[in-house]
Each structure stands twice: as C-alpha cells, then as structure tokens.
C-alpha cells in the first residue's frame, strides 16, 4: 500500500529568474551564432533554449490547504504541500488534492429501523483528506467513495437501532442523538480509512417515519404521552389521598370505618384524576341507608 511521502521541490521564484536569465542569454547567443554562421553553436543554443522553455513547465503553485501529488511516468514521487510557487521535474504530472474541510449531506434514505418500521433518514458528514497518496491511488474517485460509503453507513446504522426506545436505557435514533452521532462517525470512519479520509463529524440531519405509517405512529406517540401523564397524575393523587387520610386520623377530626374510607378514597381519586371540573353533590343521607 502506498503511503504519503512529502517532498519540498525547489523554490519557484529563484528558478523562474534563473530560467528567464538563461533564456535571454540563449537568445542573444543564438543571434550571435547565426550572424557568425557557426552551425554547431546555433544547434547548441537552440537546444539550450528548448530545454529552458521545457523547464518552465516544472513551476507549480500550491495554494493554502492544498496538495499536489507528483508522478513521474506513472511512479509516485511524493506530495507537495508547502504553499507558494515550487519547481519540480517538468516531466512529472501533478494532481491537485484539496485538504480543506468539506461536508456532505446524504439524500433522504428510506430504510427499516431495528423494529422493522419504515423510516426516512439523512445525515451530514464533515470530512477532509489527510493521506493524499491513499486518496488518489487506493480508490478510483475519493469524493464519490465518501458519498457512497457514508450513505451505506447511515443505512446500516438505521437498521441497528429502533426509531423510539421501548425499554428504559435502550438507545434509539430519536432520543439518543449524541450516542448515535458517535456511532455513526465511527462507522463512517472505518469505511473511509482506506481512502485517506478523516471524518471530523457525522450527525443525523433528518429523521422521520415514512409517510405510510407516520399518522399511525403519531397516534402511538400521543397515546404513550397520555399514558405517561396519567401515571404521574395517579401517583400524585394516591399520595394526596394517603396524606389526607393520615392527617384526618392524626388530628382525630372524624372517625372513619373501612367502608367510609373506601368511599372517601373513591371520591378523592375521581376529583383528582378527572380531566374535568368536579360537580359537587350534597348527600343528605348516610352510606347505610
């Protein structure tokens, strides 16, 4: 496997000045040789001028957060990373590779979650190239590779977790955003290691039930919320009834037998747990009539 090898090249400005000076000198010498009708000198200076002009092709500009992969007749020579104008062998080819941070947002993918429910999911992946040799030589097109592998990782993640947690402590796509983001980043990074890419961040950007079950799942969520609220109301009401009975008994306000306690508990629970205002009823008789 090829690994990145950084090369410096030569400073471009001194080389440019030297080649321009040599070109000027060669032109003047060529003119003098032509006037003197010296055939060998003319050929020599034509060759020198030709080589000098070819050498100009070795100049290359490296922008900030950019690299150029240098090849000579197909063989990897190294990577230029030092910004500015550099000079390398003019016979080499140089491929530009951006080292800037980039982001990619997948399309809305329709997959089944861990429970088999169809959902729509999308993710944002923030990435950059850190190994230019791997990015250029190990995969055909590293940008397309990032897109395809990121979407594959999102699909695999969606099938590994339920949309909603049904057990306390269970990870879910909706409720465990931080943990799911870490898992997604890890999975995407494992897939992109061979392409010399570092995943800086990966996070779900869109999550919803598929349209065909969205209304049914909404009713299910509403029912779950109502049940949870009722449980809290009942817990609070039982505590208040217990406190009321204990207070009546402690202060000896009234003596209640078991039947009257049951009636009082029933009435208090109705008042406290009802979602409507209680209507007072005046009872002029007794429980035993």
| Biggest sheet record | 4 strands, mixed
- Give the SSE order as H and E letters: EEHHEEEEEEEEHHHEHH
Number of strands: 11
Report low-confidence residues grouped into runs of 5 or more.
none
Percent of residues in helices: 40-55%
Summary?
The protein is an alpha+beta fold. The chain is built from 7 helices and 11 strands.
Outline the structure in words.
With 289 residues, the chain is an alpha+beta fold. It has 3 domains: 6-95, no CATH class; 102-209, Band 7 domain (Tetrahydropterin Synthase, Chain A); 214-273. Helices cover 48% and strands 22% of the residues. The strands form 3 sheets. A 4-stranded mixed beta sheet has the order 1-5-4-7. Strands 8, 9, 10 and 11 form a 4-stranded antiparallel beta sheet that branches. Strand 4 and strand 5 (75-80) form a beta hairpin.
Question: What's the helix and strand layout?
Answer:
Blueprint lengths: L5 E2 L2 E2 H24 L3 H17 L3 E4 L3 E7 L2 E6 L3 E4 L5 E6 L3 E4 L3 E4 L5 E12 L2 H6 L4 H19 L16 H16 L4 E13 L1 H41 L6 H16 L16
Parallel strand pairs: 1-5
Antiparallel strand pairs: 2-6, 3-6, 4-5, 4-7, 8-10, 9-10, 10-11
Helix pairs in contact: 1-2, 4-5, 6-7
């Amino acid at each position: 496997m090829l690994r990145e090898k950084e090369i410096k090249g030569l400073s471009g400005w001194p080389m440019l000045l030297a080649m321009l000076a040599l070109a000027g000198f060669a032109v003047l010498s060529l003119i003098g040789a032509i006037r003197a009708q010296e055939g060998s000198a003319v050929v020599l200076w034509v060759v020198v001028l030709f080589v000098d002009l070819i050498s100009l092709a070795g100049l290359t500009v490296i922008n900030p957060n950019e690299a150029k992969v240098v090849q000579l007749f197909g063989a990897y020579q190294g990577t230029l990373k030092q910004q500015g104008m550099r000079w390398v062998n003019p016979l080499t080819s140089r491929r530009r590779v951006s080292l800037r941070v980039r982001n990619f947002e997948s399309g809305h993918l329709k997959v089944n979650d861990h429970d088999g429910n169809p959902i729509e999911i999308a993710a944002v992946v923030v990435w950059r190239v850190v190994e230019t040799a791997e990015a250029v030589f190990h995969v055909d097109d590293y940008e397309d590779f990032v897109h395809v592998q990121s979407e594959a990782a999102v699909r695999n993640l969606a099938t590994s977790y339920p949309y909603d947690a049904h057990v306390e402590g269970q990870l879910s796509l909706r409720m465990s955003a931080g943990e799911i983001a870490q898992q997604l980043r890890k999975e995407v990074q494992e897939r992109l290691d061979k392409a010399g890419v570092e995943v800086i961040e990966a996070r779900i950007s869109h999550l919803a039930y598929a349209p065909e079950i969205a209304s049914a799942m909404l009713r299910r969520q509403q029912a779950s919320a109502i049940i949870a609220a009722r449980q809290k109301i009942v817990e609070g009401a039982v505590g208040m009834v217990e406190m009321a009975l204990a207070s009546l008994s402690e202060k000896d306000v009234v003596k209640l037998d078991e039947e009257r306690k049951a009636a009082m508990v029933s009435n208090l629970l109705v008042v406290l747990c009802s979602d409507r205002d209680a209507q007072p009823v005046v009872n002029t008789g007794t429980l035993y009539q």
